[in-house]
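so the lab meeting is tmrw and i was supposed to have these ready like two days ago... anyway. pasting both below. for each one the top line is the aa sequence and the line under it is the structure tokens. i havent really looked at them closely yet so no promises
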Amino acid sequence: MKKEGTIVVVDDNRSMLTAVEILLNGIFGKVVTLSSPNRLLSTLREVGADVLLLDMNFSSGINSGNEGLYWLSEVKKADPQIEVVLFTAYADIDLAVKAMQRGAADFVVKPWNNAKLVATLQAALALRKSRSEAKQLGDIKRSFSPESSENGMFWGTSPAMQRLRAIVEKVADTDANILITGENGTGKEMLAREIHRLSARKDELIVTVDLGAIPETLFESELFGHVKGAFTDARTDRAGKFEAASNGTLFLDEIGNLPYHQQAKLLTAIQSRSIVRVGSNTAIPVDIRLISATNRDLNRMVAAGEFREDLLYRINTIHIEIPPLSQRTEDIVPLARIFLKRYAAKYGKTCDGFDDGALEKMLGHDWPGNIRELQHTIEKAAIMADGDLITADELLISRREGNAAEQTVATTTLEEMERSMIAGALQRHGGNLSAVAAQLGVTRQTLYNKIKKYNL
């Protein structure tokens, strides 16, 4: 039997401590004994105890159990997760009930039966692990907050998107693995969330993992979790993204960026629908709906030996390709209006449309950055806008000039736009900071900090 967990035993009877220590050394990974509760709280912190076996009476001639109840309360204040089993020489059922109400895991009567004592303490350790993992998994799940309704899928009216929508509505309610491909900025994650929203798993989480952003050394820990002591910084057991997504949807973004040697580990988890945490040998079943996405040509990568063919077959039961914005020009202006409404509200502007010059400029641009580029362009225009309509001059679209070998791109960052906006407001109000702050909707201190930042 593998020894695991740390237990602290507190009793003023030293011979009893010795007997319990000998018994438990074959069960727990670490056994710490104390003959007095005076250093109990500091000891629990130092050793990272999982279970506490606590005597209920320490003072000679006193057998009320109040001392044990007091220390039970103090321990639970310091560490609500620790499991406490109480030791007493008096089989007092009322005291047992009172102790359980205050958070004790169980109650053992002296003289004890070895098998029963071990079973009680092992059950307490299992309860500790279960509660700890549930809390940790709950923390992970809460970190994946639902997207706001304003970020929902925009289907538009283009024939390409209507065909895509028909496919999505057919496959969303199944558990088929889906591979979404498309250029950067086309909305692959948004589509994944829409598929999840239309699925039978919609009331569970969709957990997103950017495989291109995970360091190679943390890949297994992030996806599959780890157990305490698996590596230097593994101070507690930790669930991975597969467990967090169980019963829901796991979205693996940028799957084409996954190094070849790690693809086999991912394939094993997908095939077996189970994971093994780093440092453990125990398989944990997971129930996920898998959606993957990439902007790379995985078939070409397979031919070049850069992507496993068997993994590709596993992830693309259904393949959906999102068309670039240049192939759905009917959707450019409706999307722009959605973004303008959002950013006009955010920046306190009155603009609610585009003049003819701005519309012509938007429709004449090829939008190589797709929806993401359009969104950023409209945000900058909303910041710069002075009137009710966005003008062509306020629509600062990146310009591409020259041939392919000598192509240059003129861009304006949000910081440059902010500096220009503040400088213009300062000039209009003759340096009156209160008036400028009121116009921009910021505090005087924030405005002052921005002026210092931009050397205005």
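ok protien two:
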Amino acid sequence: MKVLIIGGGGREHAIAVSVIKSEKVDELYCAPGNAGIGRIARCVPIGVMEFDKIASFAKEKKIDLVIVAPDDPLVAGLTDVLEKEGLRVFGPRKNAAIIEGSKAFSKDLMKKYHIPTADYETFDSAEAACAYLERADFPIVLKADGLALGKGVLICGNLQEAKDAVKAIMLDKQFGSAGNRLVIEEFLTGREVSVLSFVDGKTIKTMTSAQDHKRAGDGDTGLNTGGMGTFSPSPFYTEEIDAFCRKYIYQPTVDAMAAEGREFKGVIFFGLMLTEKGPRVLEYNARFGDPETQVVLPRMKNDIIQVMEACIDGKLDEIDLAFEDNAAVCVVLASDGYPVKYEKGYVINGLEKFEGRDSYFCFHAGTKESEGGIVTNGGRVLGITAKGKDLKEARANAYAATQWVSFENKYMRHDIGKAIDDV
């Protein structure tokens, strides 16, 4: 098979590493890719939103499977465009990707089908939102309705903070058109857990659990980011919680989308909060999470192409997902100043130290080739992932491996996975 992956971050590198292991795959392409992906695939200088160019390239190269990984092209309908050209695509169509593309849609879906989530209200005007906040309980959560690179969620501790956030989102357009509508949500407390799942329109098969660390600084301080590190599995995600989620969240979500005429095929990411009253859905994503993918896929035993084709063909019920009985931790190496302002173009040293090591991975996110070698080219630069027999060993291995790599203005959190110390 010839496979084309759309995207160029750490998630796409992790997917590429899994895809290239498949016995079904002869040639692998990635658009646009990055320096790490370029070591195992042919990178093509086409942007993820250049739909016509992607379609032309896929037809010219006779691509057998296109994997659409990022949220923007999915929500904008890349899958629909490619399918109309006769291509096989892994990733939901536009009318299903709305589950991530609009938080108001997903909240309304959960309310209609009695899927447990936080109480909320939706607003189209800043004035109405501020009036509602006058009588609200704090802390409270404000969410830009549309896509905001994982940064459109603000937790506000008091009325003034919340009104400032409304202004930033709806009037100052901090997140662009994503802030045209606003969801104001009850603040939930508990442990956060991410569960990724394969879906074929009717059957859902969940992957192993993970936990992300969104804030930029140690101790969950600072601004929200795209994710500073993850661990898998979550020791807080018990068999009892899993049974509840399967019955009241996972399958009901798939069934709800089908009932709405929005058949979902691809990956649904469930962001959960394990509250005292039981699990609640914080968010849905219509694709693999980043950096959750970097700790989940390295532990998956299945041929990922076989699983993806089963999703496309509605035969996921014939697949038994299997994961290694171990653990993995990913620590993101970022550019100092991320997610606000940072410098790029610094040479990265030490990448060769990951070669030939089965339990260590260096997933490239913001990198590119230059005359002087591989250089930094983004806020999140690398995802250093390591396995271990348990979470504590995996964490120690991952942090040890972060020292193998160096670049100017390298920054990371030092407490990824610290929550496991409470177990």
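from a quick look at the 2nd one: The longest strand covers residues 265-275. The chain has twelve helices and 22 strands. will dig more after coffe
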